[in-house]
Amino acid sequence: MNNCGFTSFSPKQLAVLTWWNERSPYYSRDGIICDGAVRSGKTSCMSLSFAAWATANFREASFAFCGKTITSLRRNVVSTLISVLSSLGFVCREKISKNLIEISLGKTVNRFYLFGGRDESSAALIQGMTLSGVFFDEVALMPRSFVEQALARCSPARAKFWFNCNPENPLHWFYEEWIKKAEEKNCLHLHFLMKDNPSLSEKVIRRYESLYSGSFYERFVLGKWVAADGLVYPEAADGKYTRTPPPGAGEEHYISCDYGTVNPMSMGLWSRYGKTWYRVSEYYFSSRKEGKQKTDEEYYDELEKLAGDIKIAAVIVDPSAASFIECIRRHNKFRVLRAKNDVANGIRRVHEALRQGRILISPSCKSTLREFSLYRWEEGSAKDVPKKENDHAMDDLRYFVSTVESENDDGFFAFAADR
Asked: Max CA-CA distance within the chain?
């Protein structure tokens, strides 16, 4: 299958590809769950197996591919799957406006609908359908209501469920209800590590291992469901990512802003030197500490002072700060971008940017360096959330990384096949 992007399959990948076949010891199972490390080769084999199973067992039936968003689903699953299926003789007709793919082999044709399970409201999108099977890509990122609504649509007797994900918090509902109860729910559970992906060289595996630390390393490299604890950015607290910017003004500039009236206001000036972004200076004001509050106009004056004579590409602002966004727009000097505010994904992106040297912090940014040493995970929570304290420079840093520095990154590329 070299022409499909695969050189060989590991035993776990072969189990994924064949578990539904009547000669498999797992034939009677109602579903399959694959969790574990990033880049471990689970998604590519699962999606190919899902399409093959549907084609072998149904005609003119409806199925669902579900991801956190349809955009990430197309990128992480659909684009590679269509390429592989086409090379194997399948015909794939994608109807983008309907979020539908018709997959056929010979006279057998089935419909595969695409759904995004971003939040609780997403459950309404899938109501009323009858599905013969459903595939969840990164199921741990989806709300429980959406997943359960999709499963409820699978009423045909031969319907099967397909789940994959990277580990999250050990109190996560999917870990509690499905992974720990896989036998009870008659599901095959396979736990993947990077070594289960034959397409990864030792060099590539070491590169992925270097991206993460702490609980991120345990989850994404070791494939463990562990709680996040301690400092959010422990290495940054030790000054590992503190550097004096090179001389000169840099090649591109942004300002990121976490707005606050009662809470502190934090703004950071970012300048790009080659492939590295430096937080070169900042503004930080705590009304509680100073004993007074500032107006939006006063904060705008501080924004202009921070920018100085530098041409700012855009000001990235906390999306909830409607009054300050309007104030900036009214002055008609700076372009405003509403920040991407997915906290968990944003923290993961900041980790990667720091560890890869894509962002560095100037020693003059005292508030950022102080918060690095204080910013901690909330203990005992079922979700990974940092404590809502000492987090204002941390938030504006995260806004910058998620919105500008990592603007093309909307999740993990979890396929085994090269793109």
From this structure: 76
* Block mean pLDDT (10 aa), the chain, length 419: 61 97 96 96 95 97 94 93 96 94 97 88 81 96 93 94 95 96 98 94 91 88 92 89 94 97 95 97 94 95 97 96 97 96 91 94 97 92 87 97 74 31
pLDDT of residue 125: 78
Instruction: Give the residue among 37, 411, 414 at the shortest CA–CA distance from 219.
Output: 37
2 phi/psi in degrees, rounded to 5: -60, -35
Q: Which residue has the tokens 């840093």?
A: 397
CA 77/CA 47 separation, integer angstroms: 7
Q: What residues does 259 pair with on adjacent strands?
A: none
- By the 8 A CB rule, do 301 and 311 touch? no
Cα 241 to chain centroid, rounded: 23
Q: Which DSSP symbol is given to 98?
A: G
User: What's residue 123's pLDDT?
Assistant: 74
Cα(247)–Cα(106) distance, rounded to whole angstroms? 65
Pairing of strands 359-361, 314-317: unpaired
Tell me, what amino acid is at 97?
Answer: S
* pLDDT reported for residue 256: 98
CA distance 192 to 38: 9
Locus of tokens 């609504």: 149
**What pTM was estimated for this model as a whole?**
0.79
Rounded CA gap, 263 and 255, in Å? 19
> 273-298 burial string, b = 16+ CB within 10 Å, else e?
beebbbbbbbbbbeeeeeeeebebee
